Amino acid sequence: MSIYYMNEGAFQLDGFTDHTVHALDTTLPEGRRLTFVSSRNKIPAGKSLRDLTTDHIKQQAARLGGYAVLDQRDAEWAGAPAIEVRVRWRHEGGVLYQRQTHVGLLDLCLFFGMTAPLEDQEACEARMEQVRQTLRLRDLE
What we know:
The structure is a single chain. The chain is of the alpha+beta class. It has a single domain (18-134), classed as Protein Transport Mog1p, Chain A, CATH 3.40.1000. It contains two helices and eight strands, in the order ββββαββββα. The protein has helices at residues 49-63, 121-134, and strands at 3-6, 9-12, 21-27, 33-42, 68-77, 80-91, 94-105, 108-117. A six-stranded antiparallel β-sheet has the order 3-4-8-7-6-5, sandwiched between helices. A two-stranded antiparallel ribbon has the order 1-2. A hairpin with a 2-residue loop joins β7 (94-105) and β8 (108-117). The radius of gyration is 16 Å and the shape is globular. The N and C termini lie close together (11 Å).
């Protein structure tokens, strides 16, 4: 039985693979946008969390101009193994900054990404830290 939860309720739908994506945004005091995206994907048999993170970075680098990894490290989020990555790329005459985290949960990879203009890197880091500190993972038996 597959039960899918959302803020407004829950429903059952068997035989589907969940690729849920949540996108949230806010306007910073300077008028620039801060965007948060979370998604989930199955970790295919024979692949690891590190493999999926590496694949994600390669895909992004292939489609985003000037994409560069600034930092990458192992971490733990809400008791689950995670890989944190900080990146930047060119976009519409500016540079965007993203702090992303790939969390391994059973056979799932949860992705969290907070994106802002490079000059708002501090706000991006602060909000992503808020996500990290408040994240509570459900038991997905």
